[in-house]
């Protein structure tokens, strides 16, 4: 066993001052719970606006649908992307005007399209003839944008295959749209969530350019490109900063479209809210499986079913901090349920101080996205993840 | 494309009469939802009692924790296995006496042990020194059984690694137990959920015998073996019937322990309730990704986040029926959320009639276990899975 001291780059994730505040705020609360820092979300929004002035922001609600998060972004002037009529209802209830809402799921029931249209939504994504016809029937005159199938190479949480169609099929759909009484408005793609290879945007933007030109040759002038999300949050794996992403994506756009850019929409979800969340959890048990096991097992009171579903296949590697001193010791991390699938990290070894004890708390950073809303209603009787706003 | 007619062995899962009842009951209800047939659970219980008269049944609540399911089994005389204090609270609220409850999770907070003890629970599982000492402090005099680590080869949903310890370590724990003021009561193992290889029980029972003898040599006479669960439900993959399991397991026990069997406990979860559940879902969209795609994509209004989490890695292959006639056509099946992970079956191809249309209903059988309680609180805004009892 290596005897190096345990270290953790705490200040990459939270200032000392903020961390002390969080400890003070949370010390008397029963774990596990999520703390969401609304000011951090405001700062993320401001930063995104600053670096991507050429783009209109549609916050992808699904990343964190808490009312307070929506309200903060609404007041900042954000637009929104709703995945379902349930999210649409929430946005309307919170006073977001339908003009600020896009319906961004390619998988829609006809009655849900009708409902969204009735409520005033006029911007829809599509990727199939069947859906396009439903839009024609239930949302006449709406602006439609077409989702192109892209590869998600380089994304920690890939989004390929299920959404979008090949450019060739999309071209056919574009040609049909006007005749159906809809406005062929633009194109969209998604390079995959937590996409760490910026070049993937270049590939996708080139495909858009190709379709723009092909459609224009038929007299159809598309007006918009939706660059999707995929901008990274700060997990364990290295990623470039937002400024670099913004500069590069702008360069790709200029190369293909020149100074007169089409309307650009982005749909950030994870990158807007993930860094603002910290989950506080407790070590339930530390055990060995055999007398001379190489690794101890550390069981936390939160796992895959309680909000950390994105640890599936160890895709998302959350930074996890134990506020103790000692030698660094690699362990296997697991959740609290009676399900063997509920192991967090076994291949990627996490290090903690060898002094870590049962009852100690750990702080799981970058957990503001895809956690609370993904927790189960009651697996093993555990309640859904509690959350607090600060 | 093969032009064989679409077939589905409907009567393996539900009688024609019952299926008509279910269609009548459900036709005006908005999908998706789960229907749980309580009489079927009663029959499963009776069948289990009939075939395994040598065993005491502790229903593993986590498989389906609906109050009505618990009450039916309580009235039948079942005992229960609770995974958490939350499940314990539910059982007590429903009038189950603490003597009928085992605390079957090896991962326990000290305060939760104290709580269970205070409520009258006296039977606990353990697999580590740390947990054993917590039990000694907070549940003095209780009966303790030790979970042995087993391989889950042959299980559709493996449960290895995370729970149990090697027999050698368990032996050390057994020797310490009396000195700590606890009663070393028995051994347990779990061969993995939906275990289709009966021989796995033989391996595990042999390990128990070995430990029984070793403990007896030190004057410690264990009294119980908990065979866990793992008895299969009826999914797509073939499995033997319960009678065969029961006969074989009894034979393994007799071979190792002779006619004077120790007290035998079983913890069925899935096998008790899975067959009693049917999820009714609607086809939202059928689409192609390219002009000459080999497979259509069929999107249902339920997916991994809405209750079908066990389709992860396509582990559990639910039987899915579409009540239409036509040629069999293989498709890719996906769920309704904006997450690419939410694909149900892509490698294993499911066949449906080529006439299947958007808006048609499909019936997903054997969904009474690990569905409703595993649905997310609100991913993509979708509410948790609704359920009805019949």
Explain this structure to me?
The structure is a homodimer of 390-residue chains. Chain A is an alpha/beta fold and 390 residues long. The first copy, chain A, has helices at 16-26, 38-51, 67-76, 85-93, 110-118, 129-138, 167-177, 199-217, 242-257, 270-273, and strands at 33-36, 55-60, 79-82, 101-103, 123-126, 143-147, 155-157, 183-188, 193-195, 224-226, 263-266, 277-287, 296-300, 320-322, 328-334, 343-353, 361-365, 386-389. The model of chain A has no long low-confidence stretch (mean pLDDT 94). In chain A, helix 8 runs parallel beside helix 9 (242-257). Chain A has two domains: 10-35 and 274-389, Lyase, Ornithine Decarboxylase, Chain A, domain 1 (Beta Barrel); 65-268, Alpha-Beta Barrel (TIM Barrel). In chain A, the strands form three sheets. In chain A, strands 1, 12, 13, 14, 15, 16, 17 and 18 form an eight-stranded mixed β-sheet that branches. The longest helix of chain A has 19 residues, at 199-217. The interface between A and B is large, with 81 and 81 residues.
